[in-house]
Amino acid sequence: MLSLTDRDAVTAALTDPTLDPTLRALIGLRVWQVDTDRRRPLGETLQIIVVQPGDQPETVHDAVGFPICWDQADQPGWEWFNDHHSYFELAYVLTDDFGLLVFVADHPDTNDTLHFNCLGFADRSKTTDAD
User: Fold this and answer.
1) What is the number of H-type helices and E-type strands within the chain?
2) Residues 6+ apart with CB under 8 A from 52
3) Rounded to whole angstroms, how far apart are CA atoms 68 and 35?
4) What's the pLDDT band for 89 if we cut at 50, 70, 90?
5) At CA 3, angle to CA 90 and CA 89, rounded to 5?
6) Contact 28, 92 (CB under 8 A)
7) Ordered strands of the 2-4 beta sheet
């Protein structure tokens, strides 16, 4: 799991060649969109969590601050959801000026309940060419 709460952590993630390029692009885009006041620490505006395959529910809940992996979790509790195919993006608005982005790996080893919840909201309907 990754927890990005400051610009140094974001820079480290963006320059980490072992991270998926799609994930790095998503992180970079969201920070660029949200981090408009460079006088404030990034952690006062945004926190980014990346849930990776094998992450335990307790670890995810501790990082996020509330349960999102259990059947009893308040789902969907996010403000908006995006399916980027290799990652799901869950956006939580926690206060008027603080948000939490959770990127969830679309991988069979990702927490079953969280992965199932994301797949249930993803619009992955097959398109066919009908003549």
Assistant:
1) 4, 5
2) 1, 2, 105, 107, 110
3) 25
4) very high
5) 15
6) no
7) 2-4, 46-51, 98-105, 87-95, 80-83
Q: Is this structure's pTM higher than 0.70?
A: yes
Q: Are 89 and 34 in contact (CB under 8 A)?
A: no
Angle, CA 102 vertex, CA 12 and CA 91 arms, to 5°? 125
Beta bridge pairs of residue 103:
50, 89
pLDDT at residue 131, rounded to an integer: 47
Report how far apart, in Å, the C-alpha atoms of 58 and of each of 74, 81, 86, 111 are: 15, 22, 23, 11
Grouping H, G, I as helix, E, B as strand and the rest as coil, residue 130 is coil
What is the crossing angle of helices 112-121 and 57-64, to 10°? 60
DSSP state for residue 125 in the 8-state scheme:
P
Residue 62 DSSP label: H
